[in-house]
Design a protein that fits this description.
This protein has 389 residues and is mainly alpha-helical. The chain folds into 2 domains: 3-243, no CATH class; 278-383, no CATH class. It is 82% helix and 0% strand. The chain crosses the membrane at residues 16-38, 44-66, 75-95, 107-133, 145-165, 185-208, 220-237, 249-271. One of its GO terms (molecular function) is peptidase activity. Keywords: Hydrolase, Membrane, Protease, Transmembrane, Transmembrane helix.
Length: 389
């Protein structure tokens, strides 16, 4: 299949996915905003929203830092936030209300059983949609963690508004007023803003491992296992907050939750560190096959090298030259991860067409690129060979 046809099909599928998920999120946003409005008066909701917004920037920034090697499409990351904030919260609220009504569950039972099961299921559904519909966007565990984090941040934002507004109004045993709001803010937004992203990260890890697995059974069992781990951690966290009072919650936070979160962060950073090696190995093999000049690789795999190449291009050719360098680097990165999956035997459908589309894009951009001096000496040796697959 010609690369242009494959590219058009990918663009069409991406647009369809984006439109459908955006419409679902918009439809869920209306009832969620009504629920938020009914939780407290207008001024209370605004104040709660501002307080809930405080941890969003730093946590999202941390996930974007993890995502720097192969930045995911900003549209998809935004859809993940919207899914968590509106769709996951809406479905979870409905499921919990139905569970309480038809199963006659107490508040504590709902918090420790129904909430973890429904919330992790609705959050994880976004990753399942990516796995089924946009599988080519998922290259491994790191991508799964990043998308799970975005969904978790969105969910936590909306949930925090509800909790903060309730605390201000003195509901659920809170002291009320600014004291109640501040106490809840410290517990939920300062001490544990990572809770929901942390739980859902297990689903992201399961999905990422499934992508990299050659076994059909593992591709099914790994996401399921990730979901069960997410539910278990979520249930344990809610149980510590529900039973035994503040002392038990604080003890669980210090002894269990905080160390587990630190381990998850260390794991994510370790996975991120492997990206350099994975990308380097894959691109050198791609270069041996004639897909790109080997001299370009340092300006693709090294983050500092990428920035230096874009800076030099901008100084030499202006904004358009910088944009061309950025597009070339992005196509090379995508080619590298796709080639890595090909070498592992886990390439997605239509990988050859996708790879040819990246190579064609690189071939189109390459003649106009302005590399830093340490690469320019090698350019003439590679121009004659071109970038044909």
């Amino acid at each position: 299949m010609p690369a242009t046809v494959s590219h058009r099909r990918q663009t069409r599928d991406s647009m369809v996915f984006t439109i459908i998920v955006a419409l679902i999120a918009a439809a869920a946003a209306l009832p969620i905003m009504l629920v938020v409005a009914l939780t407290g008066g207008g001024p209370v909701v605004v104040v709660a929203g501002l307080f809930a917004l405080v941890p969003v920037g730093p946590v999202v920034g941390a996930y974007l830092w993890l995502d720097r090697y192969e930045p995911e499409p900003k549209v998809l990351l935004g859809l993940g936030l919207a899914w968590g904030a509106f769709v996951a919260t809406f479905v979870a609220v409905i499921a919990q209300e139905l569970g309480s009504a038809f199963l006659s569950l107490s508040t504590t039972a709902s918090a420790t059983i129904v909430a973890p099961l429904t919330e992790e299921l609705t959050k994880g559904l976004f990753l399942v949609l990516l796995l089924v519909w946009r599988r080519h966007e998922l290259d491994g565990v790191l991508d799964g963690i990043v998308y799970a984090g975005m969904v978790g941040v969105g969910f936590a934002f909306t949930e925090n508004i509800l909790y903060l507004a309730s605390a201000y109004n003195g509901l659920d045993g809170a002291p009320g007023g600014m004291l109640g709001l501040t106490t809840t803010f410290v517990v939920r937004c300062i001490a544990s803003p990572f809770a929901h992203p942390f739980f859902t990260a297990f689903i992201g890890i399961g999905v990422g491992m499934a992508i990299a697995s050659r076994s059909k059974s593992a591709r099914f069992l790994l996401p399921v296992g990730g979901y069960l781990m997410a539910v278990l951690c979520h249930a344990a966290w809610n149980a510590s907050a529900t039973y035994g009072g503040g002392a038990v919650f604080f003890g669980a936070y210090v002894v269990v939750m905080l160390p587990a979160f630190v381990l998850m962060v260390a794991f994510a950073i370790w996975i991120r560190g492997r990206e350099h090696s994975i990308l380097t190995t894959a691109l050198h093999d791609a270069a041996r096959r004639g897909f790109l000049p080997a001299a370009d690789i340092p300006h693709v795999v090294d983050l500092a090298g990428r920035r230096a190449a874009r800076r030099h291009a901008h100084l030499a050719g202006g904004r358009h030259a910088r944009a061309a360098m950025r597009d070339y680097q992005q196509a090379a990165v995508e080619l590298g991860y796709l080639h890595h999956r090909f070498l592992r035997g886990t390439a997605p459908r239509h990988f050859a067409e996708r790879g040819q589309a990246f190579v064609s894009r690189m071939h189109e951009l390459r003649p106009g690129l302005v590399f830093p001096p340490d690469v320019s000496l090698h350019q003439s040796a590679h121009r004659s060979g071109g970038l044909t697959a």
